[in-house]
Specification:
The longest helix has 14 residues. About 35% of the residues lie in helices and about 30% in strands. It has a six-stranded parallel sheet, with helices on both faces. A five-stranded antiparallel sheet has the order 7-8-11-9-10.
Length: about 230
């Protein structure tokens, strides 16, 4: 089985997080930054760590940048440098270029350049926090197309102790339950801890418990309506 190869350019907080998470999942990761100290701090945790100027074509080619499955441009505040780097990668014919955008104007510019995959961590965090503040039951969500999403929510009070067949999620609320995360007490020596475990594929007889987390598929407005009715 071939190992995925990724290059992450810009090892600030955002880029470092991407590089470390890819590496922990078994990917072959090259971390690139012009700051020597940042490269030193991550060098033991990724496959390769290189200090170089990512707007220098020869420097990138010296690292066989064309051989990577994807290159993530995570450079932070210096948009000009990020833009030059992305343009250079496109010019080199990189298979997949993923670029960070900070704000709508930067996104528009990157789209005009032909960048198809754009990351906006600040916008995504802001949207997620706003939804969680407005509805504390929502733990996390993944937006899909056409207003659909996969959402993790805390089990609403009124459905606790009720079998799924009686809740009638699909017909009444237009939602599909993917699975349930359930709190299980685990013992290690004299200490007891509570951990969430996926219960598998629930059926109509599965009874929802108070501390359950439901993973739902549907439109966000239907998720919010379901939570409002049952809390």
């Amino acid at each position: 089985m071939s190992v995925n190869k990724f290059a992450v350019i810009g090892i600030g907080h955002f880029g470092r997080s991407i590089a470390l998470n890819l590496s922990r999942r078994g990917a072959d990761v090259m971390a690139i930054d012009c700051n020597y100290e940042r490269i030193e701090h991550i060098s033991d945790e990724v496959s390769y760590a290189v200090t170089l100027d990512a707007t220098d074509k020869k420097a990138l080619l010296s690292q066989n940048i064309r051989n990577f499955d994807a290159v993530i441009v995570a450079i932070g505040s210096n948009f000009e440098q990020r833009l030059l780097c992305a343009a250079l990668l496109l010019d080199l014919g990189i298979k997949r270029v993923i670029c960070r955008a900070m704000g709508r104007n930067q996104r528009i510019i990157l789209e005009k350049m032909g960048i198809e995959e754009i990351l906006s961590p600040e916008d995504e965090v802001g949207m997620s926090l706003a939804r969680r503040l407005m509805n504390p039951c929502i733990i996390s969500f993944l937006d899909l197309s056409d207003d659909y999403c996969v959402t993790e929510i805390s089990a609403p009070k009124l459905i606790c102790g009720v079998p799924l067949g009686e809740i009638d999620l699909r017909d009444r609320y237009r939602l599909s339950l993917i699975t349930v995360k359930r709190a299980v007490v685990e013992t290690c020596g004299d200490a007891e801890t509570e951990a969430l475990h996926v219960i598998g594929v629930p059926d109509t007889k599965t009874v929802i418990r108070e501390k359950d987390t439901l993973i739902l598929f549907g439109r966000m407005r239907d998720v919010e309506k379901f939570v409002d009715i049952n809390n």
